[in-house]
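Collaborator request, handled under Task 6.
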Amino acid sequence: QVQLVESGGGSVQAGGSLRLSCTASGHSYTYVMGWFRQAPGKEREGVAAIESDGSTTYADSVKGRFTISIDNARNTLYLQMDSLKPEDTAMYYCAADPAILRSYSGSWVDPLYWGQGTQVTVSS
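Structure tokens returned to the collaborator:
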């Protein structure tokens, strides 16, 4: 049973930073790990993903501002979010999948496993 538990959300002013953490258990180190988000009234969207070989992919809206990383020794996935904007306000979900989170065409794929989410609120 794969379990994903997020932490680190909160409220911050525009231009500020937050670091989200996701502690994973029951998964394999070969899994693709990532972050999705959903703002009120909007569809869920992929934010960032990291493969087992360390390669990363980001949504255009966060490229250059967010950094995804993983500490396999601690079974923890991170999302460093800098230069936050009000439009980054959303519930952020940790995700894990044995195969894929983003296709070669660029489309994000719903994962097999989700965390419960952590709220990020950015005020202007």
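The cover message to the collaborator said: "The chain has a mean pLDDT of 95. The CA atoms of residues 63 and 110 lie 20 Å apart. Please let us know whether this matches your experimental observations."
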